[in-house]
Amino acid sequence: MTFELPLAAPAWQPLPDLPGATLRYAPRAIADPDAWFARLRDEIAWERHRIRLYGREVDSPRLSSWVGDADAVYTYSRTRFVPHPWTPALGALRDAVSRWCGAPFNSVLCNLYRSGADSMGWHSDAEPELGPEPVIASLSFGAVRRFRLRHKRDASLSLDLPLAPGSLFVMAGTTQTHYRHDLPKTARVAAPRVNLTFRAIAAS
Ligand SMILES: O=C(O)CCC(=O)C(=O)O
Ligand SMILES: [Fe+2]
């Protein structure tokens, strides 16, 4: 089976205007998302990352893998991650997403939500090595899950977006400065989901 990625930019769908946020959403950026899901699930070296929660070290509620160029070392939740090398699928997706976003991504955080019991808590992707106005490009495969975005000081400014399989969601500009995002648990979803967030990390 071959995996074709289009050269042309995907069709962007309008999103509600949120002051201080720069967002783009293309619900069908990647064709045949189920085949990509199976390939990513099998090809990525999934790990149980430890995170710090209220001062205690616990297993994060999902599986993850940090992948990128050798110098793209990332500190997340006070843990230093040295990247795994690019896999063929992740390299092909990086090239397509970099072209569509006009941004030179050198790394990707891969997350596997094994079921609706797995989640990601409220955070902004504002680590210093991402720079002041990072472009973060997110691809989703498998189960549809709700992605929520909320302004840090004004909770009336928010977005609740079901991320479709094969979709591309981009956060840029000052989004991380002014907003947090999460992926809540849900009892309604039993199926797994893979999410890839492509990032540009300053070499350390
Ligand atoms: O799974 C998602 O859609 C969100 C992932 C995320 O926020 C992150 O990797 O920083
Ligand atoms: Fe994030």
Automatic annotation (TrEMBL):
Q: Which cofactor does it need?
A: Fe(2+)
- Whether Secreted counts among this entry's keywords is no
Instruction: Return the InterPro entries for the record.
Output: AlkB-like, AlkB-like_sf, ALKBH3, Oxoglu/Fe-dep_dioxygenase_dom
Q: Which residues form the Fe2OG dioxygenase domain?
A: 104-202
An example Gene Ontology molecular-function term? oxidoreductase activity, acting on paired donors, with incorporation or reduction of molecular oxygen
Superkingdom in the source lineage:
Bacteria
This protein's species is Tahibacter soli
Q: What is this protein called?
A: Alpha-ketoglutarate-dependent dioxygenase AlkB
| Coiled coil spans | none
Keywords for this protein: Dioxygenase, DNA damage, DNA repair, Iron, Magnesium, Metal-binding, Oxidoreductase
Write down the Gene3D superfamilies for this protein, in alphabetical order: Alpha-ketoglutarate-dependent dioxygenase AlkB-like
- What biological processes does GO assign it? DNA alkylation repair
Q: Which PROSITE patterns match?
A: FE2OG_OXY (PS51471)
